[in-house]
Specification:
Layout (H helix, E strand, L loop, with lengths): L7 E3 L8 H7 L4 H7 L11 E2 L9 E9 L6 H6 L8 E5 L7 E3 L1 H10 L3 E4 L2 E2 L2 H7 L3 E3 L1 E2 L10 E3 L3 E3 L2 E3 L4 E5 L2 E5 L4 H23 L6 H7 L9
Parallel strand pairs: 1-10, 3-4, 4-6, 5-7, 6-8, 7-9
Antiparallel strand pairs: 2-8, 3-10, 3-13, 11-12, 13-14
Length: 231
């Protein structure tokens, strides 16, 4: 007879994203970070900020990962014991929509732990209470149904949220457009590409502010033999 498996597997020690990288990514929007990643790293479009929880700008933090599975919250509760101020908690449910993954009491505890945001591919409940807790929440929707707290689950191990693989310590960039993940190994290259993205967008914004209607590159294409006019 096999031994009973553990209810939870928890990795407490992992390297978090460098503080200077967190600051650097916070200058940008999630869409710009996704551009710097070549269009990658964006969580599925259903995962959006709850509109009733005010925040401004871009939220950036180290990923604190947990996998609860469907209809359970135990791993998320255990993750609060590992959390450090500024972490972004990612709760992987496998896209479960039968119950909520967390509610207002959990969000209040997350606030007390100093979490910068909560991201889940599942649903959440207690909308007014979540707003009072004040921690920005990014979720796939709402449900009044409660989860259980029986496990199994993991904390601090690799998960997949919104179709994107995430490991503890990766960079998570959140704003009202969506959520983007930057893997730790790709931080330096992404920041370098982000500088180029920001420079290009700043230059284009100046041209638009000056009255541009059609970009120079598009105008040149329209006037070339690569376009057939059929007037």
């Amino acid at each position: 007879m096999l031994e009973q498996p553990p209810i939870l597997t928890v990795r407490r020690r992992f390297e978090r994203a460098p503080a200077d990288a967190v600051v650097a990514f916070a200058r940008a929007e999630s869409a710009q970070v996704a551009d710097a990643r070549g269009g990658g790293g964006a969580l599925g479009h259903r995962i959006q900020a709850l509109p009733g929880i005010p925040f401004s700008g871009t939220i950036v933090g180290s990923a604190l990962t947990c996998e609860t599975g469907p209809a359970d919250v135990l791993a998320a509760l255990a993750a609060l014991d590992v959390a450090r101020p500024g972490d972004v908690l990612l709760i992987a449910t496998g896209g479960w929509t039968g119950t909520a993954s967390i509610g207002d009491l959990f969000a209040g505890s997350a606030r007390n732990a100093g979490l910068a945001a909560i991201v889940t591919d599942g649903l959440v409940r207690d909308v007014d209470g979540l707003a009072r807790a004040g921690v920005p929440v990014f979720a796939a929707g709402l449900s009044p149904a409660s989860p259980a707290a029986s496990g199994p689950g993991t904390v601090g191990l690799p998960v997949t949220v919104g179709g994107v693989p995430v490991d503890a310590g990766d960079v998570v960039v959140c704003d009202r457009t969506g959520v983007v993940v930057v893997r730790r190994a790709e931080i330096e290259a992404t920041l370098s590409a982000l500088e180029r993205v920001l420079e290009r967008e700043a230059a284009e914004a100046e041209r638009v502010a000056a009255g541009q209607v059609v970009a120079d590159a598009v105008r040149a294409l329209l006037e070339s033999d690569r376009v057939r006019i059929v007037d």
